[in-house]
């Protein structure tokens, strides 16, 4: 492993959404959108560079090597035997969520989500003309839990589909097998289909284990579209490469028909070599990144408890995102933004974008060198302390 995770790569001036979008001040430190301030694994950089040097960027086909890289990874890391025929390529996980909504429901249908949740979950329901059926997660002893009573009421009331975020963004839960089985049993009982966004499945700390929802039983697999990608895990979101896994042939046909209708089946030229290098050669890089992120989380949690005891971090079990309860500051969303961007000159994500239950929370991206995290937290603490004085 030759990457020094303590070193901040040059990102400003690279057309980076995270670093160059600006917040009215070029000095704002960006710890928001979920990409990492770590260079990719050397294997990925080599594979993409070699591909670029071919000098012709033509239409691309899917190879056995690509499929084996995916199936091998999920067998090794998640005890999940995916067949190559279950895989459909897609330009992104969010596009897959939207395609799944279109292929499995009709306009006006109710779709369940568990808030607070990654904001595009709202968009793929509402902008496709479907109805939101919200089951807020319960925050109990600093940990989110599913509200099975509410979920069952929504299903009994006719909801057609459930969007599952597993592991959960922004709350950082890695759902246990028991929690997922209880959820899945309800879905099977009420004929509710499931779209499982498992993009964070490989970003799980060693004390926890991710269970692919569709791997838990044939009955669950039969009602599920699982949306996956190497992009979050290996820091390649700009390569627009992801895939859906669907073992039920009828659901797969419906999903594939939407892909065809929108002419989205073309594979990104750089996607397959990056995916192969990620899944076949980048495990040591991932282990190092996970250990680093976990130590960043420990650092941030102890910083907050010493310097800002009014704030309560919700300790993540997975993902590189730390969700912080700032409700004791008593600031409405616009004021929380002002505090971040103008006074502290940092950009975390403001919680209300994840739904009403996110109001008063902030989400901090921990996938960055420690010095950057420390500087951002110091700026944040000084801004809050100077408001108090
Ligand atoms: C839960 C979740 N799904 C999907 C995405 C983005 O997926 P894509 O860029 O492949 O559309 C993210 C990015 O942060 C995410 O957190």
From TrEMBL:
Domain Aminotransferase class I/classII large: 27-380
Record key words, sorted: Lyase, Pyridoxal phosphate
GO molecular function: cysteine-S-conjugate beta-lyase activity
Family: Belongs to the class-II pyridoxal-phosphate-dependent aminotransferase family. MalY/PatB cystathionine beta-lyase subfamily.
Catalytic activity, EC: 4.4.1.13
Statement: the UniProt record of this protein carries the keyword Cell membrane: no
Coiled coil: none
Cofactor dependence: pyridoxal 5'-phosphate
Protein name: cysteine-S-conjugate beta-lyase
Species for this entry: Paenibacillus haidiansis
Superkingdom of the source species: Bacteria
Keyword rRNA processing: no
Organism placement in taxonomy: Bacteria, Bacillati, Bacillota, Bacilli, Bacillales
Matching Gene3D superfamilies: Aspartate Aminotransferase, domain 1, Type I PLP-dependent aspartate aminotransferase-like (Major domain)
One Pfam family of this chain: Aminotran_1_2
InterPro entries referenced in this protein's UniProt entry, alphabetically: Aminotransferase_I/II_large, C-S_lyase_PatB-like, Class-II_PLP-Dep_Aminotrans, PyrdxlP-dep_Trfase, PyrdxlP-dep_Trfase_major, PyrdxlP-dep_Trfase_small
């Amino acid at each position: 492993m030759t990457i020094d995770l303590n070193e901040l790569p040059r990102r400003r001036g690279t057309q980076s959404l995270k670093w160059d979008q600006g917040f009215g001040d070029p000095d704002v430190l960006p710890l928001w959108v979920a990409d990492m301030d770590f260079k990719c694994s050397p294997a990925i950089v080599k594979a993409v560079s070699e591909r670029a040097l071919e000098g012709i960027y033509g239409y691309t086909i899917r190879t056995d090597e690509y499929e084996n890289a995916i199936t091998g990874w999920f067998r090794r890391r998640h005890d999940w035997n995916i067949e190559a025929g279950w895989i459909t390529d897609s330009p992104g996980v969010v596009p897959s969520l939207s395609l799944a909504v279109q292929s499995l429901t009709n306009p006006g249908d109710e779709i369940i989500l568990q808030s607070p949740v990654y904001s595009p979950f709202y968009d793929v329901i509402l902008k496709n003309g479907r109805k939101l059926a919200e089951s807020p997660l319960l925050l109990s002893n600093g940990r989110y839990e599913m509200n099975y009573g509410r979920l069952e009421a929504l299903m009994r009331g006719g909801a057609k589909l459930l969007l599952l975020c597993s592991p959960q963004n922004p709350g950082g839960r890695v759902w246990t097998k028991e929690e997922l089985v209880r959820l899945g049993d309800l879905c099977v009982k009420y004929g509710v289909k499931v779209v499982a966004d498992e993009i964070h499945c490989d970003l799980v700390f060693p004390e926890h284990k991710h269970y692919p929802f569709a791997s838990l039983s044939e009955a669950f697999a039969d009602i599920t579209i699982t949306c996956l990608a190497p992009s979050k895990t290996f820091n390649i979101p700009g390569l627009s490469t992801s895939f859906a896994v669907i073992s039920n042939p009828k659901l797969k046909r419906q999903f594939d028909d939407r892909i065809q209708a929108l002419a989205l089946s073309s594979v990104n030229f750089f996607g397959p070599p990056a995916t192969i290098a990620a899944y076949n050669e980048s495990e040591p890089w991932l282990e190092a990144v996970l250990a680093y992120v976990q130590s960043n989380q420990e650092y941030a949690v102890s910083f907050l408890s010493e310097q800002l005891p009014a704030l309560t971090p919700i300790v993540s079990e997975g993902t590189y995102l730390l969700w912080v309860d700032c409700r004791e500051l008593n600031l409405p969303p616009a004021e929380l933004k002002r505090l971040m961007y103008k006074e502290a000159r940092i950009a975390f994500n403001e919680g209300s974008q994840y739904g009403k239950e996110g109001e008063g929370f902030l989400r901090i991206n921990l996938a960055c060198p420690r010095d950057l995290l420390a500087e951002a937290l110091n700026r944040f603490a000084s801004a809050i302390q100077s408001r108090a004085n």
